[in-house]
Amino acid sequence: MDVSNAVRQVEEILNFKDQWYGDAIEVKTPALFQRLQKVRSSAKNQLEVKKCLAFDVKCAILYPDELPNLLLAFEFPIDYPSENRCRVRALYVSDPQLEYKSCTAAIERYLDAFYGCECVESVMDWLSKNNDSCLNETESENDIGAEISTDNDRYGKVQCYILRYNHLLSGPEHKKEKCMLSAAKKSKLQGGLLWGTPGVVVIVPPSTQDDSKEYALECRILGKRPDGVDEIWLPLAGIEEAGLGGLAQQKRGGKMQELDTAALRTTCGEDEDLLRAVLGL
């Protein structure tokens, strides 16, 4: 984590506590919050952080008549606020496994304009203007089933893309693979590459699906044909820990991270089922 982001995240939460709605906040990662409070802006540029700061806002305290059953679950990505926006989910107080999906989606749309700056106060402003209507269309949307489970599985994760190859072999004698790495660097593709059989390229944000498809086309031209471009959701903390994040890639001179199976497992948050999905097993 960049020091400036750590300082700004702490300041934002402390400022939140000083506002009229400060009594509604509950920090869910207190140990991390206390640690980051000790960080000074003059410290070294990078901090080893495996989790994201998270906190809840109990809306019943603020709007007991309008929103007695609404809980806003906030999470600060590691690269927030310099390169990302905060994540917010609108949950049921009575059952946090259930989500007010329309409310979450409305907040996400509102926050799309706030990349690179602090978001919490903006969310609270939005809530103050919409507290009487933000749940109107959502009461019937939360049937317990696969869709809810999928959303919960994606909490703390980001949309990534997987390209699988019959094999990818390392070494100067393997010219096609060498050209693949050069093409990825030239196009500023973000992610990592697993050597072996099968070979796997993992593409992470800010690279997009279009970037992934363009890279797949370049690989075909080079003589390395992927079996497609598959979407998958990977934990942001795992991506950062495995060195696939933007700052780590900058330190490598823009090169993709070269992975072994252990590093790919870390990317998947030590989730064996997710690892198998990435490998296509």
General description of the model:
With 281 residues, this protein is α+β, with helices and mostly antiparallel strands. The protein has two domains: 3-143, Ubiquitin Conjugating Enzyme (Roll), CATH 3.10.110; 157-279, Reverse transcriptase/Diguanylate cyclase domain (Alpha-Beta Plaits, 2-Layer Sandwich). It contains twelve helices and nine strands. The strands form two sheets. A five-stranded mixed sheet has the order 8-5-7-6-9, sandwiched between helices. Helix 7 runs antiparallel to helix 8 (209-222). The two termini are 33 Å apart. 31% of the residues are buried.
Tags for this model:
281 residues; alpha+beta; Ubiquitin Conjugating Enzyme; Alpha-Beta Plaits; 5-stranded mixed beta sheet; 4-stranded antiparallel beta sheet; 9 strands; elongated
Summarize the structure.
The protein is an alpha+beta fold.
Gyration radius, rounded: 21 Å
The ordered string of helix (H) and strand (E) elements is: HEHEHEEHHHEHEEHEHHEHH
Query: Could you tell me the number of beta strands?
Result: 9
List the strand order in the largest sheet: 8-5-7-6-9
Give the C-level CATH assignment of the largest domain: Alpha Beta
The CATH topology of the largest domain is Ubiquitin Conjugating Enzyme
Q: What gross morphology would you assign?
A: elongated
Helix content: 25-40%
Q: Give the percentage of residues in beta strands.
A: 15-25%
Largest sheet: 5 strands, mixed
**Mean of residue pLDDT?**
83
Low-confidence stretches: 138-150
Helix-strand category: alpha+beta
Number of domains: 2
CATH architecture call of the largest domain: Roll
What is the number of helical segments per DSSP (H or I, 4+ residues)? 12
Distance between the termini: 33 Å
